[in-house]
Design a protein that fits this description.
The chain is mostly beta strands and 143 residues long. The protein has two helices and eleven strands. It has helices at residues 5-10, 130-136; strands spanning 15-22, 27-28, 31-37, 45-51, 64-68, 78-83, 86-95, 98-102, 111-114, 118-128, 139-142. Strands 1, 2, 3, 4, 5, 6, 7, 8, 9, 10 and 11 form an eleven-stranded mixed beta sheet that branches. The model has no long low-confidence stretch (mean pLDDT 87).
Length: 143
C-alpha cells in the first residue's frame, strides 16, 4: 500500500514547496505550487525559496525556509509577511498599532507599518541551507 500525495500531507510526511519569497524590499507575492518535499511536517507547514540578501548572514539566497501558517509570531521571530500585495521575510516586532519589520542585513532599511495592513503568512520554523540542499532533497512531486 502506498499513500497518495494528499495522504502524505495529511500524515505529516511531506511539506508543500509553494514558491519564492523575497528577503529584500517588499515585492509582489506569487504563490505557485512547485512540489512536495519529502520531509516530516504538520498541517500548516509550507516551504519557500529565499530570494535576496536582506536576511544574510542568517538566511541566504537559495535557502529553503519552512514556515508555519497560523501561530502569532513572538517579538523578534522571523516571519513571512504580506503588505499591500507585497511580501517579504523579516524579523517582526509589534509596536502598539504598528509593526516593525527588521532585516538582518544592515544595508536594508527597517520598515514600520500599520499593524492592520500587515498579514503574517507564516512564522519561520527551520531551513535547508542553499540551493544544493533543495536539489539533493527528494521531491515527491513537481509541477
Amino acid at each position: 500500500m502506498e499513500l497518495t500525495l494528499e495522504g502524505r500531507l495529511l500524515a505529516g510526511l511531506a511539506i508543500p514547496l509553494v514558491g519564492r519569497i523575497p528577503a529584500g524590499p517588499l515585492d509582489l507575492a506569487f504563490e505557485e505550487a512547485e512540489g512536495l518535499l519529502a520531509l516530516p511536517g504538520k498541517p500548516g507547514f509550507f516551504a519557500l525559496v529565499v530570494e535576496g540578501d536582506s536576511m544574510a548572514e542568517y538566511l541566504l539566497e537559495g535557502d529553503v525556509v519552512v514556515v508555519e501558517r497560523g501561530p502569532k509570531p513572538r517579538p523578534g521571530e522571523v516571519a513571512a509577511v504580506l503588505h499591500e500585495g507585497r511580501t517579504t521575510l523579516k524579523y517582526i516586532y509589534p509596536k502598539g498599532k504598528r509593526v516593525v519589520l527588521k532585516p538582518h542585513n544592515p544595508a536594508y532599511p527597517t520598515l514600520e507599518l500599520p499593524a492592520e495592513e500587515v498579514e503574517v503568512q507564516g512564522v519561520f520554523r527551520f531551513l535547508l541551507r542553499g540551493q544544493e540542499a533543495l536539489e539533493n532533497l527528494r521531491l515527491l512531486w513537481r509541477f
